Amino acid sequence: MSSVATPVKRIAALDLGTNSFHVVLVDIYPDGHFHTIDKLKEMVVLAEKGMKHQLSEAAMDRGIAALRRIKILCDSQGVEQILAYATSAIREAENGGAFIQRMIDETGIKAHAISGRKEAQLIGKAVKHAVSYDGETVLIVDIGGGSVEFIVANQAEVFYSTSEKVGVARMTAEYVSTDPMAPVEIKRLQAHYSDKLSDLFVQLDRHKIRTLIGSSGTMENIAAMVASRQSITASLTLNELTFSARSYKEFHQAFIKMNRRERLGEKGLDEKRVDIIAPGLVLLELIIRKAGIERIKISESALREGMIWDYIDNEKEALELDLLEREGAAPRRRSVFELLRKCSWHEKHSRHVTKMALQLFDFFQDELALPDGDRELLEYAGYLHDIGYYISHRKHHKHALYIIRNADLRGFTEDEINVMANVARYHRRSTPKKRHKRYRKLDKPLRQRVKKMAALLRVADGLDRSHYQNVQQLEIEDEGQSVTLYITTEADPELEIWGAMRKAHLFEQVLGKSLEIYSKEKGKVVDREPPDPFPEHKA
């Protein structure tokens, strides 16, 4: 196995928030990427009665109990270093230092209380690595219990960042006394937000922000509830989940009127947030309305992931990391290549197959009615189609499906991940069928796109049956009722022609045309079903 697939260090990033303690355990690799191996979230609610000057004994006891469980997890997984950052509730409490000392004495975990500005910086760094900005300048909003971080940025530059003491636990304690919130309480809260966030609204107007990216628990809960109501796919990941401002407003109008019992019945809402989430909805509605936000997108990466990226940047020399390939790459592409390197991909074969698959895509895109964005998905599916070998040769196409779906690929929607995974899965053996569970669960339009792209990938993969990049040039001719591929090869073409023709059925089905393949030197040289001369490479 390539050394690039061997991690150099295992660390944990622990976010000691006002509502919850959340740890993520990761392996760091030589090229500067990391892979999540485990995570744990403990709801502790340090500010159960609002943001007071003192943490209560009960709150500290809950925190210590949670940290003991986190420490057991880290020790059992062989974590070499725990990065622990304390945020609003601990840094503001007069006895916050005493709590940090209790952490050291009773659990062995040493925490650093970071400033709100540092917190915003780290959140911005995490979201940049997790979500595609599509060339936009966006507003990042991380709604915590004690504070809310706001970052105005594009993929290359941060224009504004701040942390304001308007978190949901704090605002609930100060402004909410009825259930559901009374209209007068909502108006007072809106006035408070407007006053505290006046500088932010100037920035939003200056940069003409239209996309809001939300991170952390409150925003994830809101997104999950909207997704449930809108029947948006969100079972695999919330990362890159996108919904319109109109969808949010419709949800907001209904939810803000609900009492506690009704809120508990809302799918996607964490029970421990049921009493404090309403101010978060009021904040989001105000920003959308005043700034003219058109869409909301979710990042599953937040402070913890920002801590890890910051650690990697600061320790790259000590860990002897090579970050050159990471710099400047968009989250989608960077995430795919991190996975490829981790799985010791068959690079020459996969690049060659992908090049031919994209040539077929470009030629038949209009005829197959495939959207422009599917070209990128086919490219990544082509690169990833053989990563199942990382688990075993047998059923490697099914292993590829599993790995892609569970790899925490960043920058993609859940539908996009499912499309790539299924296209890669169908590069060999059976063609897509509704009896296949993962394929059956896709919406019909997605199934059709998978079939069409898989058809192209299957033929391209067959054209490198030897895995030696024998096909030097591919020419395509569409004759109306048939398609002819002319190949120029470095060596004898028999195996490549046979490999492609035995996978031609789906291609012919989606196009409604017969396929023939000819060698430029030898013409048509094989039938469709000769014996496989290389069964050990069975495709």
Q: What is the compact description of this entry?
A:
With 539 residues, the protein is an alpha/beta fold.
Describe the protein in words.
The protein has 539 residues and is α/β, with parallel strands linked by helices. Helices cover 46% and strands 17% of the residues. A hairpin with a 3-residue loop joins strand 12 and strand 13. It starts with 8 loop residues before the first strand and ends in a 20-residue tail after the last strand.
SSE diagram, text form:
Elements: E1 9-16, E2 20-28, E3 34-43, H1 57-76, E4 81-86, H2 88-92, H3 96-107, E5 112-113, H4 116-130, E6 138-143, E7 148-153, E8 158-164, H5 168-175, H6 183-196, H7 198-207, E9 211-215, H8 216-230, E10 242-244, H9 245-255, H10 260-264, H11 278-291, E11 295-299, H12 303-315, H13 331-342, H14 347-368, H15 373-384, H16 396-405, H17 414-425, H18 437-440, H19 444-462, E12 471-478, E13 482-489, H20 494-501, H21 504-511, E14 514-519
Parallel strand pairs: 1-4, 4-5, 6-9, 9-11, 13-14
Antiparallel strand pairs: 1-2, 2-3, 6-7, 7-8, 10-11, 12-13
Helix pairs in contact: 1-3, 4-12, 6-11, 9-11, 14-15, 14-19, 15-17, 16-17, 17-19, 19-20, 19-21
